[in-house]
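== Protein entry: sequence and backbone fold ==
=== Local backbone shapes as whole numbers ===
==== Amino acids and backbone structure tokens ====
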Amino acid sequence: MKNLNNKDEEPNKIEINVIKKEDDKKDKKKGPKAAKMFGLLGSSLSEIMKTPISRWTTVGASMRYFGTFTSDYYLPLFYLTTYPTHRTQFALLYSLINIFCGFVSSLGGGVIADRLGKGRPMMKAWVCVAGNLLALPFFIGSVLITNNFGLSMACTALRFLFGEPFRSPSVTMLQNSTKPEKFGNLIAAYQCYQKMATIAASLVVGVLFNGLNVAKYPGRVGPILAGIATVAYGGSALAYYLAGNHYLAFKRHIKYRSIFAKDR
């Protein structure tokens, strides 16, 4: 009996050793694959900053995401502290504004850039620039109007209506100026920079809120958001203007030297 049991145990030990070896091989394969993926992302993050069009479209989109994160996540705080008796109305109106005005703006940006952009490469950039510049005053108005809920919400609706058309033209400029085999990696880098911008926004807002003691003085929320939006929307407009000029030069096979050129 003893010998029989030993014989039964030996195949089990062999199976366990085989399974362990297979697991070790899988772990070894995962290591190089993960390292390769991170290396590819790192090279893409660097690659997208090498050419002016991809660099400035990425900067423009990232700054807009910086401002968008600030407005989307902290604008409710402004309304709930400034208009505490309008919580239900705000929740309903803000949801409808996001759905309808945001959708119309995003779709409209692509349609305008396509319909009016034939033979006008700069049109894609102008859509992005105009969206930022038109939305900015409405955003500022929405967070600085503290005694008229309806007017403040109207400004928020107009900010969404004018402020979201940059998405499609921005990606189109990037796509048209990039080799097809590189486009997928550059889009990953483009989106990664946007995510990093939202993380930076949360850190900046947190520092400002704590430094200016917003918990004690909630009336400071609006001016802080207005200041951040001015930097984000204004910076995005400038970046898209530069991207558009480089894109125009690229399409017409001429050279554009911006004020940020290293050899200037």
